[in-house]
Every structure is written in C-alpha cells, then in structure tokens.
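Request: How about a record?
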Amino acid sequence: MERYYSKNIQYEIEQSVKLDFTKFDTQILVHEKIDASETSKSFIFNVLKAVKLQVELNCNYCVIKENMDYKLTPGESLYKVLCFGIQPEQIGFQIDHKKNIVIQTSEFSLIFGEFPEEYKSEQNKRLLWQSLKLLFT
C-alpha cells in the first residue's frame, strides 16, 4: 500500500497483489473466512483429495483477504484455478459468472465455488463435482 499526502490529507492507494504461479499450474484460492474455519478448510482439503491434489505437492494454496485486490498473472502454460468464496473482481476478472462451472479463458481454466456451507445442497455438490471432473480429467 502506498501513502500520498496532500494538504494534510493522507490517501492510501491499494495495489494489486500478484499471485505467483511459477511452482505449480494448479492454484487453490480460498477466502480468508474459509481458511479461519477448520471445518471449512477440511471440506476444501477433501475436495482437493477427491481430484488427487495435495497442497505443496501438486498445487498452491493461497488465502485471499476480503479487502485486498489480487491479480492473476498468466505464464507460459494454461493454469487451473479453483476458487472458494471469492468473487472474480477480487482476482482481476470483470466477468459475469455462475458458481461451480468451468470458465475458460486463453490463460486460465477457473471454477468459482461457493463457501463450503453452501454445499449442503445436493445440486451445488453435483455442479461442483461435474466441473471438477471436467477440469481435472
């Protein structure tokens, strides 16, 4: 964050945080409230396990803070991004989206999932699972 001063008024300008995709081509982005809850985090890790992903073995796990902007920087290959509890605008996308479906761009394949408590609905679980199979098989 940068601070600027003008006539005794302080302005704080938020800068986007760039997410590093150099280690793995699969990124797991979770809202900070999910990471703070053991039950929610357990759900996320069970989802990852179902598609044979393990944090720091074949994917990155990044906590997205609510009041901060992030930028996904494309690299040399197509990246898979699985988001839970995050809005596209938070990571630099200005798109109209539906939850639990695969969104394809030239650099990314993304799924914007719900907060874990929303998966009590069988319909949401089914949509997520179908999208995960499409993205990871």
